[in-house]
UniProtKB/TrEMBL annotation:
Residues 3-196 form the NAD-dependent epimerase/dehydratase domain. SUPFAM superfamilies: NAD(P)-binding Rossmann-fold domains. PANTHER family: BIFUNCTIONAL POLYMYXIN RESISTANCE PROTEIN ARNA, UDP-D-APIOSE_UDP-D-XYLOSE SYNTHASE 2. Pfam families: Epimerase. Gene3D superfamilies: NAD(P)-binding Rossmann-like Domain. InterPro entries: Epimerase_deHydtase, Lipid_A_modif_metabolic_enz, NAD(P)-bd_dom_sf. It comes from the Bacteria. The lineage of its organism: Bacteria, Bacillati, Actinomycetota, Actinomycetes, Pseudonocardiales. This is NAD-dependent epimerase/dehydratase family protein.
Length: 281
């Protein structure tokens, strides 16, 4: 298939491009330079002739979404509508979504979560018309080599380990997250593409199924890097105490399993990339 990947310059997007190419697809990388999601005409021209799209381009930080809710909605919802409008009949779409969305209950109250929920609903409704086949991947915390965003947990801890800096922990470090290796997340996009039959829609949680506490991540970084990370605790943040993913649906519906997502493997691969980057800036 000829597959376009929006957000191809991002951490997960780069891995998805590589995984699709390795699977034999013809891949077109779409970045901000290629097409502005806020301009539907640009999107339509860029996606002309593709068979499928893996749509990852989005505002992804909750803090940024709160600072600019309107811009977040323009990008996350408006951009998704532009992609949907550009796709030919019978095309396939894999949407990058968030594990913050549950099968029941209200969407998150922040603009990021609410906009991702709205985008998912739009994709579902278009798929129900028979115009395309779609899978929404509700991703857990993707981590691993190539992530330089220090607002996220693992890159922040690795940077502290590399620089001998103090790491600030919200609360007592007992908050639980599900980390999934970026290579496994990319493989999920390849698997989802294969089952996105026209007229179908499914929302599938994607995670390792191995929830870990923040303090366990700190211990793993010390174990792998050989550098103990100094820690300072502050008041717990207003965030879910636990995010856990059951990967059974991804296994049953996509034929996908997390093969690289043991905690030490994620940390080791990310640490190796961090050290290499420091040596060759």
């Amino acid at each position: 298939m000829r597959v376009a990947v929006t957000g191809a310059g991002g951490f997960v997007g780069r891995a998805v491009v590589a995984a699709l190419a390795a699977a034999g697809h013809s891949v077109m990388a779409v970045t901000r330079r290629t097409a502005d999601l806020r301009h539907p005409a640009d999107v339509a021209a860029t996606l002309a002739g593709v068979d499928a799209v893996c749509h990852l381009a989005a505002v992804v930080r909750v803090r940024d979404s709160r600072a600019d809710p309107l811009g977040t909605w323009r990008t996350n919802v408006g951009g998704t509508l532009a992609v949907l409008d550009a796709l030919p009949p019978g095309a396939r779409l894999v949407l990058a979504s968030t594990a913050a969305l549950a099968d029941s209950g209200p969407p998150p109250v922040h603009p990021y979560g609410a906009s991702k929920h709205a985008a998912e609903v739009a994709v579902r409704d278009v798929a129900a018309s028979g115009a395309l086949g779609a899978v929404s991947l509700r991703l857990a915390n993707v981590a691993g080599p190539g992530d330089a965003d220090r607002t996220r947990l693992l890159p922040a801890i690795l940077a502290a380990a590399a620089g001998g800096e103090e790491f600030v922990v919200n609360g007592d470090g007992s908050a639980v997250r599900d980390l999934v290796h970026v290579a496994d997340a990319a493989d999920a996009f390849v698997a989802a593409l294969a089952v996105a039959e026209p007229g179908s829609f499914r929302a599938v949680p994607v995670g390792s199924g191995r929830p870990v506490a923040v303090r366990e991540v700190l211990e793993a970084v010390a174990r792998v890097s050989g550098h103990r990370v100094p820690v300072r605790h502050r008041e717990a943040a207003d965030e879910p105490p636990a995010v856990t993913i059951d990967p059974a649906r991804a296994r049953d519906e996509l034929g996908w399993t997390a093969r690289h997502s043991a905690l030490d493997r994620i940390v080791r691969d990310a640490w190796t990339a961090t050290v290499a980057c420091d040596r060759h800036p």
